């Protein structure tokens, strides 16, 4: 194969009176391109024949069925392998961009891969239920794309005190890995996470370079009363609605951020359990 590739290159270069050095460079580049193209094709093709874990027709019978499946099975906050409608591998950014076009949904494929593999499928039917699925799928992708673009950016400046009087600002973030949770008292999903959040704090309580900070919407007096019955082991900062919505530009509760020792956002998650593996890896690199 290599001989058949080199022969025409040598002939064409000879006719153009290229130097020996130029010839060697062209041969090396051609071989490298051939190998790279072969590798990409093999990588793409390994996913072509994978079957979806649920058929598109079955999944989209009604909105609720699609929503339940997507909520529990399509976890865009985690690392995954994304494929377009032709099973071509996409990076995360482009996968989310395509999914946000309001005509595609993601379905998990059956595979032995350690990472989840999601493929995009086109929704052609335009009945009311299908339109709702399309719009909601697009919003999910747009939200996750926003989280993706937050990565690597500094956490917006804040200078606040928690309900115990401890200051939290840019200086208190530096040198530590900070797990941030946004929530409010009447958010059922936020409160349901408390036991899991407290276990996470306990897991890292002996590591002085890991800290947990929660930004709540409610006033201090209401938070103190509420937390007597529903303890949260994070530091709790009251009245942070403006900061969350205008500085962080977040609209979903709860949302979780991991901020690096340099004060920059490393990752954003909507579900606490999705950040646990990422946090574990980040702590090993401290």
Automatic annotation (TrEMBL):
Regions crossing the membrane: none
Annotated signal sequence range: 1-24
Highest taxon of source: Bacteria
Listed InterPro entries: AhpC/TSA (IPR000866), Thioredoxin-like_sf (IPR036249), Thioredoxin_domain (IPR013766), Thioredoxin_ResA/DsbE_sf (IPR050553)
Key words of the record: Signal
Location of the Thioredoxin domain: 149-286
PROSITE patterns in the record: THIOREDOXIN_2
Classification via Pfam families: AhpC-TSA
Protein name according to UniProt: TlpA family protein disulfide reductase
Organism: Undibacterium amnicola
The organism's taxonomic lineage, starting at the top: Bacteria, Pseudomonadati, Pseudomonadota, Betaproteobacteria, Burkholderiales
């Amino acid at each position: 194969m290599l001989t058949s590739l080199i022969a025409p290159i040598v002939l064409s270069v000879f006719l153009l009176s290229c130097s020996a050095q130029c010839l060697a460079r062209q041969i090396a580049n051609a071989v490298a391109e051939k190998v790279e193209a072969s590798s990409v094709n093999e990588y793409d093709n390994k996913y072509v024949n994978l079957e979806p874990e649920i058929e598109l027709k079955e999944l989209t019978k009604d909105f609720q069925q699609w929503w339940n499946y997507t909520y529990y099975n399509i976890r865009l906050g985690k690392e995954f392998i994304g494929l377009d409608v032709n099973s071509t591998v996409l990076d995360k950014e482009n996968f989310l961009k395509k999914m946000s076009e309001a005509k595609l949904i993601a379905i998990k494929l059956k595979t032995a891969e350690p990472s989840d593999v999601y493929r995009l499928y086109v929704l052609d039917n335009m009945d009311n239920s299908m339109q709702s699925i399309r719009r909601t799928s697009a919003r999910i992708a747009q939200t996750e794309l926003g989280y993706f673009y937050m990565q690597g950016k500094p956490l917006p400046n804040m200078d606040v005190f928690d309900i115990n009087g401890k200051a939290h600002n840019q200086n208190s973030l530096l040198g530590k890995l900070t797990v941030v949770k946004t929530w409010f008292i009447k958010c059922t999903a936020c409160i349901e996470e408390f036991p899991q959040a407290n276990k996470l704090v306990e897991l890292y309580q002996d590591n002085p370079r890991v800290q947990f900070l929660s930004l709540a919407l409610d006033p201090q007096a209401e938070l103190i009363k509420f937390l007597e019955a529903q303890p949260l082991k994070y530091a709790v900062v009251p009245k942070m609605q403006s900061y969350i919505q205008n500085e962080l530009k977040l609209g979903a509760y709860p949302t979780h951020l991991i901020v690096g020792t340099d004060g920059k956002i490393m990752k954003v998650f909507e579900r606490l359990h999705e950040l646990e593996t990422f946090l574990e890896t980040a702590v090993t690199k401290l």
